[in-house]
Amino acid sequence: MVYLDNYIKPLLNSMLKNFIKQKSLDSLRRCDQNPQNCEGVDIFISAGSKEHWQDSLEFALSNGGFMIWGRRVEDKEKWVQEIITGGIKGMEKSLLTSYLKSSEKLGKSAEFSLSPITINVFYCNDVGLIGAGIVTTIIIDSVNPFWAEERRETSSRGVPVVIFPFRWLAKILWLHSSVRAYPTNPDMWRGIEPPEGIITRGGLQPVKDLQLKSALVKALIEEIEKGIDKTLELFERHAEVKEMKPEVVQQPIPVEKYVLDVSPDELTKVREAVLQEFAVEPDIVDFLLSVLVYGCKNVLLIGRPGTGKTGIARFVAEMLSFEPVVVTANAHWSRVDVIGGPMFIGTGSVTWKPGILMQAIARHIEAKKRGKRGAWLIIDEINRTDVDKAFGEFFTIFSGPEPSEWVVPSYIVDEWSRYSSMSKDDVYRVMLEEIRTSLRKSDIGYYVPPDFRVIGTMNYVDVSNLFAIGEAFTRRFARIIIDYPSDIGKELDILLNKIRRRGEFADVVKVIDGELLEVIKKVTKELRNVERLAFGPAYLLSTLYTFLAHTKLKLATEASIENARKEAKKILRYAVESSLSIAPLWDDELRNKVKDVLDNVLGS
Fold it and tell me: Is the pTM of this model over 0.85?
């Protein structure tokens, strides 16, 4: 429901912004100084529930700060008949009379010397005084249900019943700081206790007694003075966001559009780059790229430690122009870490911190605006967390294998909105606006962008320290096993070429040739046969770097490279031992097996 059209709303906004700051504060200050001056200020209090005020303020956020309120009519037919026969009476007449006086003065004065002014003070049950505004428009509407209570009420014919037909708009001049911070989350609101004798009933009531009126102004004037600018900025900022990012409700795109727009030539270049950078089987790379680009699925990379799972995931994402958002799972993760939840900030304030998934989706949207294809979420060591505890709603969002089934439920975004602060200090609000205004909308939520991917990695060594991953979780991914390369010689060529391209050991890498190369192959093969020991390409690469660094030091002090070669096996032993995982340090059986391999191949 919109009562303000595109002409009148900007006009009132411009006019009232000046008027509020120039005249309304002056009138309130005079009333604060002397009760007799309060004759120039008509004050009405609107009292209602949190639910009603939430509906009203959500309307204000969408309509430039114009609040809507209404007076309950128990017997609408009788009320309408009374208006027809005798005109508006009671509270409605009192408010209308004040409003008409104000309107008449406003129409005659270019300087807005409005007297009296009609102030509407907002009282929220069980909270206190939460805001105030200037009445600008009177409406009688018995057709359009507005409040949630009205939308729930229906006639015997199933038609919604309007139970607040006498309505008015007020340009909000002040909201309590807690309401400004959480305008759509009443549970976070705090208010000002009204002076004794002010609130005598629910609904609409005038404050006629000058002493009471002055007492009310005294209770509010300091907060109003401090909060006017921030309140006006709140609605201006919200209007700018909506203007720049209008919400677009669209239907899901056809399935064939889910395939990433990657040319065959680009895909070939990515494949070649991966095979140059990582010691991994070509078939595995082909499978990974086909699933990510054409299969439109999330991927779970499974393998031993050090096989390059995380590095490959990051590298492929970057080569395809997706920014990698890399996080490492841990046993303490919960729903807050993956999806999001309330978080205390500052001095007792609360905001909603998005979890890694919601942050990555927002990053995906933002990256597109910078010319990237988007962003992909990479979760390393995913089986180190309790999946049932942390990933429950992940199952809901990725309920099926196809992107057409990937939907963020509305209640998650609504929860984020309720806790989100309008403060510029709330860095997560930008992410909320990205998601709320950029994602395609469905009846149940917001479609996850079809080119967004989640890549998880998990290893199967030392499983006693890891959580079990159930079928319900793994079936939401294409599972790809990355094991040790089948050809150690080819693996060494890839790793040594990688070292040569980086250049820091160009002068000593020639030491690794002939006999020493065969020794390294044999050590690698034997170590990989040791049960429970991880020695993948990453460990081998670390060994090579450590060996070359120590050899470079030798060459700085030795006359020739031949002298360095004489101690190569001794240096290689140190390099291997320093590159292994720390498990052999406390596992006597494993340490003895490693010692046997090194003694047999390199000598004791």
Answer: no
